[in-house]
Amino acid sequence: MRTYVWLSVLDNKQGNREKTGSNRGVVYHKNVEDINDRKKFSTWKMTEANLERSLNKTDVNAPDDIGYRPVHLCARKGLLEPLRILIERGAQIDFFTEPDDEASDRARSLGYLTIEPLNMALENNHEECARLLLQNGAKPNNQYFLGYEINLVPLDNLECLKTLLEFGADPNLFSRCGLTPLMKACRQHNIRAARILMDSGASLDIQPPDRFEQVAKC
């Protein structure tokens, strides 16, 4: 089996006989040389047994055209058992590498654009996938261009918020706009999220650093 075939199945269980490129990060049958193989795998079902068989012949960290790995696709779709199998087979779950002191500003900026599987699980409200990733070493305080993990998790996803805090996320981190999660919850009139954050140590009187004074209204 070719490396990319089952990546498409993770993101589209029915496959697609027409597409052979990528669309929104979905890879369809790339590197399948024989048209009969392409037809065969277009109806391939996503089961644990099929995944186990395919993993014997493929790289569990194989990227698609835009850099997503199988763990990204599982986290985004909420595929808990396939995600568990991938982790057991040694799949990487953290991809951001902290730049060293000599890294250029461009390299640093590009680094913060890295999207972690944990972020995808949290954004799509897949709490069990997020918990599995955190249990296996995913960092709860990943930093992105717009803020940290705790700043980006949708506050309506209360169980995901609780899980992230349970594994050590700092509730007092500022987003790029100069807001803590508690400030964001208050702005959105989300009382339940505000209570969860306060119970986890969110400060009631924290002030944003000076560099945020001009962007605090965003």
What characteristics describe this protein?
disordered N terminus; 12 helices; 218 residues; mainly alpha; Serine Threonine Protein Phosphatase 5, Tetratricopeptide repeat
What does this structure look like?
This is Ankyrin repeat-containing protein. Keywords: ANK repeat, Repeat. Pfam families: Ank_2, Ank_4. With 218 residues, the chain is mostly helical. It has a single domain (5-173), classed as Serine Threonine Protein Phosphatase 5, Tetratricopeptide repeat. It has twelve helices and four strands. It has helices at residues 5-11, 35-42, 48-55, 70-77, 80-88, 105-111, 117-123, 127-135, 149-152, 158-166, 181-187, 191-199; strands at residues 22-23, 26-27, 143-144, 147-148. The chain has a two-stranded antiparallel sheet with strand order 1-2. A two-stranded antiparallel ribbon has the order 3-4. Strand 3 (143-144) and strand 4 (147-148) form a beta hairpin. It is elongated, with a radius of gyration of 20 Å.
* CA gyration radius, whole angstroms: 20 Å
Strands, count: 4
Helix content: 40-55%
How are the strands of the largest sheet arranged?
1-2
What does this entry show, briefly?
By secondary structure, the protein is mainly α. It has twelve helices and four strands. The chain has one domain: Serine Threonine Protein Phosphatase 5, Tetratricopeptide repeat (Alpha Horseshoe), CATH 1.25.40.20.
